[in-house]
Design brief:
By secondary structure, the chain is α/β, with parallel strands linked by helices. It has one domain: Aldolase class I (TIM Barrel, Alpha-Beta Barrel), CATH 3.20.20. The protein contains twelve helices and 14 strands. An eight-stranded parallel barrel has the order 1-2-5-8-9-10-11-14, surrounded by five helices. A two-stranded antiparallel sheet has the order 3-4. Strands 6-7 form a two-stranded antiparallel sheet. Helix 10 links the parallel strand 10 and strand 11. Helix 3 packs parallel to helix 12 and helix 9 crosses helix 10. It starts with 32 loop residues before the first helix and ends with a helix. The mean pLDDT is 93. Bound molecules: phosphoenolpyruvate and cobalt (II) ion. Cobalt (II) ion binds next to loops.
Length: 454
């Protein structure tokens, strides 16, 4: 790897490590600096997961999404788990994302950019640094890249070696995603790959089948009238994304190229709500990257601070550079989003607007489980479409926490899950995800909403 001189910027010199001079929130405390240094040195020379060409292609796609010519579907687990790096779990998650994208492509009549929250989504921000049980006080679980969720001294110790495991699991995941995407997994002519055994609702099943049938019809017709095979109908591409939270890890994958520095551990890093502030090490870190970046925006970020952040991370007002992922909650979006849109419009930054209708809608049940109501998720998303429409801006995508498994973490949806059902298959260690059926239903709901707006 060739060492490049640091990039000059109007206010300070940026380098992959310049974030270290800023306050880095949400970082674990590693006891052994020598061990940490050894791990980071190893990571810094390992092959990257993605390439700059793929990243540039994603940015081009995001530019089209901000012009309303593509739709961004970003989804996956709140946090990946090392022991869920399994073929069935990866394939099921891919399957539901594919099925959702098929519904969206067909219903919205535009290409869909599929971005997984996977192959690196292993670090989590937490509201507290420590957690107590009885007399014992231990560091909180911060994702498998840092420590383990079990309440025990050894499990909760932040262990640098886990970054190597995170890298390896990310690589295995992405390798399998790429193999499935290239290998005909999504070939529409093999409908057995498209079975809907997780769908209990007859209505959803029939709606989906009708779409598949009509696409197959169109394919057969085109093939009958054209002697050439239709290219690419059996290939699908996925991009990866994760929260760029654990900065030493991100730095190790920040690689110099002739076009500048790229984070090559993922196509699309985003900054979470808790670290998205002007003075943060995270904003400093992403500012020098050539990757497109996502910024989560919630209530606590003042519009003026956001525009200052935009000026810093996007000084050239570059299309596709910044995606704003708003997450206000069903109660708050109506007041917060229109104001935000006005301020961002006035700033001149050509952002892509997307909505995360999950993180502002988390509730705790009487039994102490974190949950989200399907109808609240749906309603925040519908309001986002309406507000953008009324403001003359475009909602170009959605950011969802979902799984291909049949879990019971969010209430509502076609199966009418209630709070009392949540114990049946509640698996998340962090946030509640839409199960496969609820996720597919959400895709239909987006299509229905968009049709009413035409
Ligand atoms: C997340 O995406 O899992 C998350 C923690 O979101 P936010 O930063 O928006 O709270
Ligand atoms: Co989450």
């Amino acid at each position: 790897m060739s060492k490049k001189p640091p990039i000059e910027s109007p206010f300070a010199t940026w380098s992959p490590s310049s974030w270290q001079a800023f306050e880095a929130r949400q970082q674990p405390f590693f006891e052994d600096d020598v061990e940490l240094g050894r791990v980071l040195e190893r990571l810094a020379v390992l092959p990257p997961l993605v390439t700059p060409w793929e990243i540039n292609r994603l940015q081009q796609n995001l530019v089209e999404a901000s012009a309303g010519k593509r739709f961004l579907l970003q989804g996956g687990d709140c946090a990946e788990r090392f022991d869920e790096c399994r073929p069935d779990i990866i394939a099921n998650r891919l399957k539901v994302l594919l099925q959702m994208s098929l519904v969206l492509i067909y219903g919205l009549r535009m290409p869909v950019i599929r971005v997984g929250r996977f192959a690196g989504q292993y670090a989590k921000p937490r509201s507290a640094d420590f957690e107590g049980q009885g007399a014992e006080r231990l560091p909180t679980y911060r994702g498998d890249m840092v420590n383990a969720p079990e309440f025990g001294r050894q499990a909760r110790r932040p262990a640098p070696e886990r970054m190597i495991t995170a890298y390896e699991r990310s690589t295995m995941t992405l390798n399998y995603v790429r193999a499935l995407g290239e290998g005909g997994f999504a070939d529409l002519r093999h409908p057995e790959y498209w079975d809907l055994d997780f769908v209990t609702s007859d209505h959803l099943r029939a709606e989906y089948q009708a779409i598949v049938d009509s696409i197959l019809d169109a394919l057969r017709f085109t093939e009958a009238v054209s002697p050439l095979p239709i290219s690419n109908t059996d290939r699908v591409s996925f991009f990866t994304s994760h929260e760029a939270l654990l900065l030493p890890y991100e730095e190790a994958f920040t690689r110099a190229t002739s076009k500048g520095y790229y984070n090559l551990s993922t196509h699309f890093p985003w900054i979470g709500k808790r670290t998205n502030t002007l003075d943060s090490a995270h904003v400093e870190y992403v500012r020098g990257l050539r990757n497109p970046i996502g910024l989560k925006v919630g209530h606590d970020l003042e519009a003026r601070e956001l525009t200052a952040i935009l000026d810093r991370v996007d000084p050239d007002c570059e299309p596709g550079r910044v995606t704003l992922i708003t997450r206000f909650g069903v109660e708050g979006i109506e007041e917060a989003l229109p104001r935000l849109i006005d301020v961002v419009n006035a700033s001149g930054h050509p952002v892509l607007w997307t909505c995360d209708p999950m993180h502002g809608n988390t509730e705790i049940t009487e039994d102490g489980l974190k949950t989200r109501r399907f109808e609240n998720i749906q309603s925040e998303l519908e309001q986002a479409f309406d507000i953008h429409h009324a403001s003359g801006t475009i909602l170009g995508g959605v950011h969802l926490e979902l799984t291909g498994e049949n879990v019971t973490e969010c209430t509502g949806g076609a199966r009418g899950l209630e709070e009392k059902d949540l114990h049946e298959a509640y698996e998340s260690q962090v946030d509640p995800r839409l199960n496969a059926e609820q996720a597919l239903e959400m895709a239909f709901s987006i299509v229905r909403k968009c049709r009413t707006m035409r």
